[in-house]
């Protein structure tokens, strides 16, 4: 595996680059740079063939002495989070061979590397400070459109999947998934979404699945409850450390440290916006062992979710009455307000576009 380093990274490695390196296939060749994020060193690695991004963070001087091992493990970890089969990952790493460091190839690849490094800075809020391997940031950056000469625009993750399918000769993704039936608990309306979700995602991502599926705007606090056999809450999952400080009879855990797979097949409750108090019941219809995608898919969608800040179920009923009555003095104003809040008829194609591209 060829790792072509910027001068800044080579200086950090205190290593003379290999001369006259036989250039590997672009799929097994990467460019790498070292940047500083929040006063800590990060290494950004970009694939030459498809511009897929892998990120390491929090490296100290001693860690750069084993950067070859860390890069290999970072690629392995990131591919696993993508849902790529273990045998495909190991076949790729074995074919790539031992890591060799060299100088950067040309200005074009360095410019692409610099752009990826800028994007890593944008997503610094996703950093996991306890790990070298920043799989979340690498995957997020790799899902952004980039220009690619005659091809126009590409998404690096999709290009990497194609490359690995060609390399391995078959499908590359297989993972456990759960089919969730999610019902928004309203007295007078049926609002539900049936969604298949990879089981290896953490609940902070399940939260975003709920936001996309119901058209919420992520403007308010939320929490999850895992329910026992009798329907009583047994665990509370929260989104930030501050919530851990409140006394509660239930065990409280951070959602970003808990995977959906850990809670299957329990029924769950998702509460969004403590003011309007939107309660969603999540039931597991079935668990699939060989899901061939690494993103959620909405299978069914019925009923419009209320707009943000409408005033709870009572306010929603009043909102619906006003927009249905053209003679009401607030009719046009309320319709305009609803559009501003994103209120629209449920559209499963739009939901699935968001679930695939924006998570």
Automatic annotation (TrEMBL):
Domain (DUF6933): residue spans on this chain: 2-159
Classification via InterPro entries: DUF6933, MM3350-like_sf, Plasmid_pRiA4b_Orf3-like
Xref: Pfam families: DUF6933 (PF22016), PRiA4_ORF3 (PF07929)
Domain Plasmid pRiA4b Orf3-like: 177-343
UniProt protein name: Plasmid pRiA4b ORF-3 family protein
């Amino acid at each position: 595996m060829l790792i072509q380093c910027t001068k800044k990274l080579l200086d950090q490695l205190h290593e003379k680059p290999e001369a006259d390196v036989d250039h590997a296939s672009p799929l097994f060749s990467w460019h790498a740079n070292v940047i500083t994020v929040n006063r800590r060193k990060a290494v950004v690695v970009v694939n030459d063939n498809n511009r897929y991004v892998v990120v390491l963070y929090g490296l100290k001087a001693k860690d750069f002495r084993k950067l070859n091992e860390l890069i290999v493990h970072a690629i392995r970890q990131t591919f696993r989070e993508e849902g790529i089969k273990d045998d495909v990952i190991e076949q790729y790493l074995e074919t790539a061979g031992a890591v060799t460091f060299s100088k950067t190839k040309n200005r074009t690849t360095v410019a692409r590397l610099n752009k990826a490094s800028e994007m890593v800075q944008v997503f610094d809020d996703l950093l996991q400070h306890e790990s070298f391997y920043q799989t979340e940031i690498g995957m997020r950056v790799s899902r952004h459109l980039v220009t690619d000469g005659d091809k126009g625009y590409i998404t690096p993750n999709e290009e990497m999947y194609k490359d690995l399918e060609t390399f391995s000769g078959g499908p590359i993704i297989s993972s456990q998934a759960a089919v969730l039936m999610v019902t928004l608990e309203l007295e007078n309306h049926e609002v539900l979404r049936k969604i298949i979700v990879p089981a290896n995602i953490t609940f902070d991502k399940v939260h975003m699945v709920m936001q996309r599926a119901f058209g919420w705007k992520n403007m308010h606090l939320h929490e999850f409850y895992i329910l026992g056999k009798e329907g009583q809450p047994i665990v509370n999952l929260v989104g930030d450390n501050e919530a851990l400080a409140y006394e509660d009879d239930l065990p409280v855990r951070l959602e970003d440290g808990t995977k959906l797979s850990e809670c299957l097949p329990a029924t769950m409750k998702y509460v969004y916006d403590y003011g309007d108090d939107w309660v969603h019941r999540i039931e597991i219809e079935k668990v699939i062992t060989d899901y061939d995608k690494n993103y959620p898919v909405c299978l069914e969608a019925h009923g419009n979710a209320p707009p943000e800040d409408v005033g709870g179920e009572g306010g929603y009923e009043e909102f619906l009455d006003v927009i249905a009555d053209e003679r009401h003095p607030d009719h046009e104003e309320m319709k305009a307000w609803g559009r501003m809040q994103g209120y629209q008829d449920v559209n499963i194609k739009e939901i699935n576009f968001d679930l695939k591209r924006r998570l």
